[in-house]
Amino acid sequence: MTDIQRQTQDAIDRLIESDAERGLQVAVHHRGELVVDAVAGQADPATGRPVTPDTPFHVTSTGKGVTSTVVHVLVEQGVLTYDTPIVELWPEFGAHGKERATVRHVLNHSVGVPGLPRDTTPEDLTDWDTMCAAIADATPWWEPGTRTGYHPQSFGYLAGEIVRRATGRPISQVLREEVAEPLGVADELFFGVPASELGRQARLEEAAGGMELTPDVVAAMAEQVPFFRVVNGWTAAPPAALPSAAFCNREDVLAADIPAGGVKTARAVARMYAALMDEVDGVRLISPERLREVTTVSISGIDEVTGAPAARGLGYDIGFPGPLDSPTLFGMAGSGGTAAYADTATGTVIAVAKNRVSAGDYSTFHHIGALVAKALGPR
């Protein structure tokens, strides 16, 4: 066992023993090689089933990095370009002033459709055609391309429908055939989990002491927090469809294509990011030139939805406040505390999956990130 593997295993064992976490996976790639594949704790506290390296976790927005990777692979193949107008693939999307919006605008969250109808339910989210029809007919909150604002749920339908229109295949199939199978992780990297695989999932739970985002709480927060505001009956955070532990454990949600999130193992996500930067067992997903393009800041400024500063490449956030923060860092974090980031300067990828939902708390990822950065040496 390497020192970094042992140090990481000891760290996550302590997190489980202290009850800071219930179940954890950590995977680290360095210059195309898997150097950490560590697990600890329980995947299902009700049965005591342990976490194994191939236990899939619902990782909410950490999955957006996978969604974006699917688009980049298609661009690499010449199926579409970043400046392809969406209406060329999806004519209905041009309604209400969105006719000039491009694939690039979707990837950098500047397309201006961050919301969904406020009364959206989990059942609605599982209905692909209904969600895409609503988004196509939406009135943008700003002129596409002029501002950036995080698209929590709509991002998945926007990118996914572009993929479907361009290929004739749902994004779950394209992910499997163009990314997961070539990388040998087809049973660990999902949108739309097959029924035969649902019993393998980690069960998520809410962290003790967290605020329950009931509809009443959300309504009160809408007065103060941009993320929860309502614009003409639309909001980035429909109260009934927030990604709580209960939402992420629903079999209909897990089985549906909802590619604003996803179901993954840490090692599968890490392997994917590694194959964006380097060749991994003979597979490199995109060229070095395209890697530079997608990891260069495409848009920045105060986010219209979160109210926080944002710097975005094409489909990935650039930088992540914490011990790994750097202008060469790219990836995505999930609302429950999961995250996967890669650094083009060091060739390092760190992915953390966990089943205790700690909204906005990335202390576990940062703890592991600091350990890994120290173990691998200076940049």
What is the topological layout?
Elements: H1 3-17, E1 23-30, E2 33-44, E3 49-50, E4 57-58, H2 64-76, H3 86-89, H4 103-107, E5 116-117, H5 122-125, H6 128-136, H7 154-167, H8 171-183, E6 189-190, E7 205-206, H9 215-221, E8 230-231, E9 234-235, H10 245-249, H11 251-255, E10 263-264, H12 266-277, H13 288-294, E11 299-302, E12 309-312, E13 317-318, E14 329-333, E15 339-343, E16 348-354, E17 356-357, H14 363-376
Parallel strand pairs: 7-17
Antiparallel strand pairs: 1-2, 1-16, 2-3, 4-10, 5-9, 6-10, 8-9, 11-12, 13-14, 14-15, 15-16
Helix pairs in contact: 1-14, 2-7, 2-8, 6-7
How would you sum up this structure, described in words?
- With 379 residues, this protein is of the alpha+beta class.
- The chain has 14 helices and 17 strands.
- The protein has helices spanning 3-17, 64-76, 86-89, 103-107, 122-125, 128-136, 154-167, 171-183, 215-221, 245-249, 251-255, 266-277, 288-294, 363-376, and strands at 23-30, 33-44, 49-50, 57-58, 116-117, 189-190, 205-206, 230-231, 234-235, 263-264, 299-302, 309-312, 317-318, 329-333, 339-343, 348-354, 356-357.
- The strands form 5 sheets. It has a 7-stranded antiparallel sheet, with helices on both faces. Strands 4-10-6 form a 3-stranded antiparallel sheet. It has a 3-stranded antiparallel sheet with strand order 5-9-8.
- β11 (299-302) and β12 form a beta hairpin.
- α2 runs parallel beside α7 (154-167).
- The longest helix has 15 residues, at 3-17.
- The chain is globular.
